[in-house]
């Protein structure tokens, strides 16, 4: 298990968005963190004078219910009423844009999918994603050194970043131990 190199207390727990969902020893932690993250999102929206509309809330809940990144169409299926009309892609994308802008959700470019943030990262924070090719799990981590390095690269090129994500693809600790 890696140690989160973070300052804020909410970062102390190592939360794994990963594994098969069965008998995961992190499952209980995950549920608790998801509930906290939803409450935090509601509070932040109130503070910023924004509305967590039903579709935004449903999208955020559905992303928190999964340990893996979810594509927009898949998400539309999950939150459309059973037997009812499927939500229009534009509505889903608008809700997701909002959630990403507010820092509640991250978009993984390499997967064209979304994952709920359990860490309260801001929208412009530098975050590293450890993406497992075997189980599809995604872990997040960050460090002051990485933040500095990315800022220096951008500054050298007079580049103004809007999203700062490092996507690292490979095999997670769990799959490495389970496999050969
Ligand atoms: Zn995050
Ligand atoms: Zn894995």
Q: Can you describe this structure in just a few lines?
A:
With 180 residues, the protein is an alpha+beta fold. The chain has helices at 27-48, 54-64, 72-79, 89-101, 144-156, 173-178; strands spanning 105-108, 113-116, 127-132, 138-141, 165-170.
Number of strands: 5
Q: Helix fraction?
A: 40-55%
Arrangement of strands in the largest sheet: 4-3-5
The secondary-structure element order is: HHHHEEEEHEH
Structural class: alpha+beta
Task: Say which molecules are bound, naming each kind only once.
Answer: zinc ion
What's the total helix number?
6
Distance between the amino and carboxyl termini? 19 Å
Largest sheet: 3 strands, mixed
Mean pLDDT: 83
Radius of gyration: 17 Å
Proportion of beta-strand residues: 5-15%
Q: Based on Cα principal axes, name the global outline.
A: globular
Weakly predicted, low-confidence segments: 1-23
Polypeptide structure, described:
By secondary structure, this protein is of the alpha+beta class. Helix content is about 40%, strand content about 15%. The chain is built from six helices and five strands, in the order H-H-H-H-E-E-E-E-H-E-H. Strands 4-3-5 form a three-stranded mixed beta sheet, with no helix packed on it. Strand 3 and strand 4 form a beta hairpin. The protein is globular. It starts with about 25 loop residues before the first helix and ends with a helix. Mean pLDDT is about 85; it is low at about 1-25. One zinc ion (ZN) binds near residues 106, 117, 119, 121 and 140.
